[in-house]
Design goal:
Chain lengths: ~110, ~160
């Protein structure tokens, strides 16, 4: 519904037309630049993430090393009937190994 | 609506939006700029969402009006209609534009509806939507506003003719 159609409103129209002319001289601030997330800004994050994964992959597996030769681990364990049994294991990897007895040398 | 499309529409409406912001901020340019920045920020952050239920201009003007009032920094000039109209055409008061002074002397709602209809070429329905009041109420303010502004213009004309 348009409202400005009466002859009576002509002076009002004239008033606002004048106002608009005056306002046209006012400097309107520039439309603010809207910063869009740029794809290249994600590159450092990607590199950091890749390095973190690589570090975890390599450093996490560092302790388990393949040995040049097979290792035979002989342990003496107490059986169900309190009898002593030798347990012989063979492995190609050795992360860490500790004697189950306090000292093989002192006890035997 | 996608963001680039919305951004383009906002750019097109920027000038009109600035003038409306200025009018909502009692013609305070600095405040109008701040309000408009806040409005764009609200839109970008999704705090003010255009749901395409109304025209974008109506929606944008509504957000600007709300933000201007929300800011609460709008200084309402409680100068009586008579004293302001006298001030508007005093020779030693060049700082205040007489158009703005006359508009400012009207009550808030009368001022808003006249600006929306005559200055921004909106219909009374759109004005009612922006002002968040019924069409009947907006019509009432429109009629009173026109009557008051006409009286002020007539007074100014008579004053100029008598000089």
């Amino acid at each position: 519904m348009k409202t400005i159609d009466n002859y009576e409103d002509q002076n009002l129209q004239h008033f606002f037309r004048e106002m608009k002319v005056k306002d046209s001289a006012i400097a309107v601030p520039q439309f603010p630049k809207i910063s869009k997330p740029k794809s290249w800004s994600l590159i450092p994050i990607g590199i950091a993430a890749s390095l973190a994964v690589a570090a975890w992959f390599y450093l996490g597996n560092e302790q388990i090393r393949a040995l040049d030769h097979d290792v035979i681990i002989i342990t003496l364990e107490e059986g169900l009937n309190k009898e002593l049994q030798f347990k012989i294991e063979r492995t190609t990897e050795l992360e860490s190994w500790e004697s189950p007895t306090s000292s093989l040398l002192t006890e035997f | 609506m996608k963001k680039p499309q919305l951004e383009n529409l906002l750019k097109e409406l920027h000038q009109e939006a600035y003038h409306w912001s200025r009018q909502c901020c009692s013609f305070d340019e600095d405040l109008a700029k701040d309000v408009l920045q806040l409005v764009y920020l609200k839109i970008l952050e999704g705090k003010a969402e255009y749901k395409e239920k109304s025209q974008i201009k109506t929606w944008l003007f509504s957000v600007i009006r709300f933000t201007a009032y929300e800011e609460g920094r709008k200084e309402v000039q409680n100068i009586s209609l008579e004293s302001l109209s006298d001030l508007a055409y005093e020779e030693d008061a060049p700082e205040i534009d007489f158009h703005e002074a006359m508009i400012q002397s009207l009550p808030d709602r009368q001022r808003e509806v006249l600006l929306l209809v005559f200055y921004h070429n909106l219909t009374l329905e759109k004005a009612a939507e922006i002002m968040e009041i019924s069409i009947g109420t907006v019509r009432k303010h429109y009629d009173r506003g026109k009557r008051n502004l006409k009286a002020l213009i007539l007074k100014k004309t008579l004053h100029e003719n008598n000089r």
